[in-house]
Design brief:
The complex is a heterodimer of chains A (about 425) and B (about 180). Chain A has about 425 residues and is an all-alpha fold. Chain A is about 70% helix and about 0% strand. Chain A has 15 helices and no strands. Chain A starts with 5 loop residues before the first helix and ends in a 14-residue tail after the last helix. Chain B has two domains: about 110 residues, 2-Layer Sandwich (Alpha-Beta Plaits), CATH 3.30.70; about 70 residues, no CATH class. The chains are: A mainly alpha (about 425), B alpha+beta (about 180). Chains A and B meet through helix 10 of A and helix 1 and helix 4 of B.
Chain lengths: ~425, ~180
C-alpha cells in the first residue's frame, strides 16, 4: 500500500483497458437495438397520448452526429457527471462540520476544494446549457406553449425559460459561495488556529444543508429531470444525490490514497483507518443508491400510472433495457458483493479498478437519464460523449489541482486534526520486547 | 465439587490504565499465550491487534444468513403466488422478482441479523452460566475503573510460577490466582 507496486500499476492499466473495451462494446449496442426502433415509436406515442397530451417531444427523427441537439445532450451528460462530484464533495464537507467529525479533518481540504469548483467554474460551464435550452436543442418545454400542454401547464411555475435562466445560475452560485465560505474559514484557521472558525463553519453548515438539499434537488429537476417534463418522481433528487456522493467517495478514496503516498502532502495525516472508513461509506452509498433507485422504479411500477411509467417504458426500449440492467448489476451488485469483505476495502488491486468502474457507472447512469430523450431507439454513443466527459473531467481536474496547491494540503490547525492523526497502529509481534 | 477446589483456573492480572493493559496484551501475544483474554470497562482501540486476534469469522454467518433470507423470500413468494395458489393482484404478473424484492430484502436483513447474533453466540460458546471469574470480588471493578487480563491454566504455555512471574515482573500487575469452583 505504501507505493504503487508493479502489480498495482498493471491493474490500473487493466482498468483503463476494460474502460475502453466497455466503451467499444457500447458502440456496438445500437445495432442490437436498431430494429426495436419502430416499437420505440409506438411505445412513445402511447406514452404521449396518456401523459403529455400531444407535447412536442423531440427525438423522433434520427439525429445527426453534428447536430446541436447531439452536442447539447452529450454536453449535459458530462456536465451532470462533473456536477455530481462537486455536490458530493460539498455534502461531505457539510457533513463533516455537522457531525463535528474528527476522522475526516485531514482530508477535508480536498472536498472543500472540489466543492469550490462550483463557483465560478461550474457556473461558467452551465452557461452553454442555458444557451442550448434557449435555442431549442435541449429542453423541449422551452418551445412549448403551456396552454397546449397540460403536463407543462401545471408545472409552468418552475418549468419556464425565465425561471430556468434565473434559477440554474443562482443555485450553482449559492452552493458555490457556500463551499467557498467554508473553505475560506478553514484557510483562515490555518493561520491562527482559533476554534471559532470551526464553530462558524458548523453553524453555516446547519443552514447550508437545507440550501444543499433544495438546491441540488432543484438543479437536477431543472437540468435533467425536466428533459421529460411530464415525469413525476419525488425521489429523483435523492437519486441524483445518492449517485453523486457514491462517485465522490470513491474518487476521494483514490485521490487521498494517491496524496498520502510517501513524499506527498497527506503522508503524515492520512492512515489506513480513514481509508477503511471512506471505503465503508462508499459501500454504504452503494446500498443507499440501489435502495433509492429501486424504490423509485418499484413505486412507479407498482402504481402503474401512465404519467410516471412512460419514463421507464421508454428506457426499456431497444438497448436501453440492457443499459438499465448494466446499472442494476454494475452500479449495485458488482460493487456490493465485492466490497462485502472488509479486507477488500484496502486492497488497491481491487479498489482502483472499482474506482474506474464507478466512474463509468455514474456516467452510464447520467446517460440513462439524459440520452433516451434524444435516442429513444436505443443507446447511441457518439464521439461527443467521451470528448465532453473526459474533456470536462480533465479541465476540472486541472483547476482542482492548481487550486489545491495554492493552500496547505490539509487544515493545518484544525482543532479536530489531532483526532484524525491519532491512529492506532499496533506494533507487530516482537516489537514490544524492546521496551 | 470438592475435587475442583484446588484445581487452578488461571491467573488474573489487574491494571489501572488502558495503556498498561494494552502493553501487557502485546507482551502476552508475543510470549505466545493462546488461552487468555482481557476484560475492560470500555472498548480499547487497537486491542484486537495488540492481542493478535484474527479477523472475526462472524461475517460468514451473516453472509450465509442473508443469502438464505434472500432466496427464501423469493422462493416463498414464487411458491405462494405462482405455484400453490395463482392469484392475479392489480394486473401484475403472477411472479416477478420486482414485487418479491421488498419481502426478500427484509428477509435478507432479518436472517443476516440472526446469522450475526447466533453466529456470535456460537463462536463465543454462549450462553455460559458460570465462569470462575465471577467469584472474584475485585473482578467486579472491570465494569468500573479496572482492567483485567486473565491467562487460563489450560494454556499450553501456562506454568503457575513462571506465568505469575511473567505477569508481575514483565507486566507490572497485581496478580491473583483463580480456582475452578
Amino acid at each position: 500500500m505504501n507505493a504503487f507496486s508493479r502489480q498495482t500499476k498493471s491493474w490500473m492499466a487493466l482498468g483503463g483497458v476494460v474502460a475502453v473495451a466497455a466503451f467499444a462494446l457500447f458502440g456496438t449496442l445500437p445495432t442490437l437495438g436498431a430494429d426495436a426502433g419502430s416499437a420505440a415509436h409506438s411505445v412513445q406515442e402511447a406514452a404521449h397520448a396518456s401523459a403529455s397530451h400531444g407535447a412536442a417531444d423531440h427525438g423522433h427523427a434520427a439525429v445527426s452526429v453534428f447536430s446541436l441537439k447531439q452536442i447539447a445532450h452529450s454536453y449535459l451528460t458530462a456536465y451532470m457527471f462533473c456536477l455530481s462530484l462537486c455536490v458530493g464533495s460539498l455534502f461531505l464537507t457539510l457533513a463533516h462540520h455537522l457531525f463535528d467529525a474528527g476522522w475526516s479533518a485531514s482530508i477535508r481540504r480536498v472536498t472543500e476544494t472540489v466543492a469550490s469548483l462550483l463557483f465560478p467554474w461550474m457556473l461558467i460551464l452551465a452557461l452553454p446549457i442555458i444557451g442550448f435550452a434557449w435555442t431549442g436543442n435541449l429542453h423541449a418545454w422551452f418551445k412549448i406553449n403551456p396552454a397546449d400542454d397540460h403536463a407543462l401547464d401545471v408545472k409552468k411555475v418552475l418549468f419556464n425559460p425565465m425561471a430556468f435562466t434565473f434559477l440554474v445560475p443562482v443555485l450553482i452560485t449559492l452552493l458555490g459561495l457556500l463551499a467557498r465560505q467554508i473553505r475560506a474559514w478553514s484557510i483562515a484557521q490555518d493561520k491562527d488556529g482559533a476554534a471559532h472558525w470551526t464553530s462558524k463553519s458548523r453553524k453555516l453548515s446547519a443552514a447550508g444543508i437545507f440550501l444543499f438539499a433544495f438546491g441540488v434537488t432543484l438543479l437536477c429537476f431543472l437540468l435533467m429531470k425536466s428533459l421529460q417534463h411530464q415525469f413525476f418522481s419525488t425521489m429523483y433528487g435523492v437519486y441524483y444525490f445518492a449517485g453523486s456522493v457514491w462517485t465522490t467517495l470513491i474518487t476521494l478514496y483514490l485521490l487521498t490514497m494517491w496524496l498520502s503516498q510517501p513524499g506527498r502532502p497527506l503522508e503524515k495525516v492520512y492512515f489506513k483507518r480513514q481509508q477503511q472508513d471512506l471505503a465503508v461509506l462508499f459501500f454504504a452509498f452503494t446500498v443507499f443508491y440501489a435502495y433509492i433507485h429501486f424504490s423509485q422504479y418499484f413505486l412507479i411500477w407498482n402504481a402503474a400510472l401512465p404519467e410516471e411509467t412512460f419514463w421507464y417504458v421508454r428506457r426499456e426500449v431497444g438497448s436501453w433495457k440492457w443499459v438499465g440492467m448494466l446499472i442494476l448489476f454494475g452500479h449495485f451488485f458488482v460493487p456490493f458483493l465485492l466490497l462485502l469483505n472488509q479486507d477488500i476495502k484496502r486492497n488497491m488491486a481491487v479498489m482502483i479498478p472499482v474506482g474506474a468502474w464507478a466512474w463509468l457507472m455514474q456516467y452510464v447512469d447520467m446517460t440513462y437519464n439524459v440520452m433516451p430523450v434524444l435516442h429513444p431507439e436505443g443507446l447511441h454513443l457518439t464521439l461527443w460523449d467521451p470528448i465532453f466527459w473526459i474533456g470536462m473531467s480533465v479541465l476540472l481536474g486541472r483547476l482542482f489541482w492548481s487550486e489545491y496547491r495554492k493552500n496547505p494540503p490539509y487544515p493545518l490547525k484544525d482543532p479536530r486534526l489531532q483526532e484524525a492523526i491519532v491512529h492506532h497502529e499496533v506494533p507487530a509481534p516482537g516489537a514490544s520486547a524492546a521496551h | 465439587m470438592n475435587s475442583n477446589r484446588s484445581k487452578p483456573h488461571g491467573l488474573l492480572a489487574e491494571f489501572h490504565t488502558a495503556a498498561d493493559i494494552f502493553e501487557a496484551a502485546m507482551r502476552c501475544r508475543d510470549a505466545g499465550f493462546t488461552q487468555w483474554d482481557v476484560y475492560t470497562p470500555f472498548p480499547i482501540h487497537g486491542m484486537d491487534e495488540a492481542m493478535g486476534l484474527r479477523k472475526s469469522p462472524v461475517g460468514w454467518f451473516t453472509f450465509c444468513g442473508g443469502f438464505t433470507g434472500f432466496f427464501t423470500g423469493m422462493t416463498m413468494i414464487w411458491y405462494m403466488n405462482k405455484f400453490d395458489y395463482p392469484l392475479v393482484v392489480g394486473g401484475k404478473p403472477l411472479f416477478t422478482p420486482l414485487y418479491a424484492f421488498p419481502v426478500s430484502y427484509e428477509m435478507t436483513i432479518l436472517l443476516s441479523a440472526f446469522g450475526t447474533l447466533f453466529g456470535m453466540f456460537f463462536l463465543n460458546q454462549l450462553p455460559k452460566f458460570y465462569n470462575p471469574l465471577f467469584k472474584n470480588e475485585r473482578f467486579k471493578k472491570s465494569t468500573d475503573d479496572r482492567f483485567f487480563l486473565c491467562i487460563e491454566a489450560t494454556d499450553p504455555k501456562f506454568g503457575m510460577d513462571a506465568t505469575r512471574t511473567f505477569l508481575t515482573e514483565k507486566c507490572h500487575a497485581a496478580v491473583v490466582e483463580l480456582v475452578e469452583d
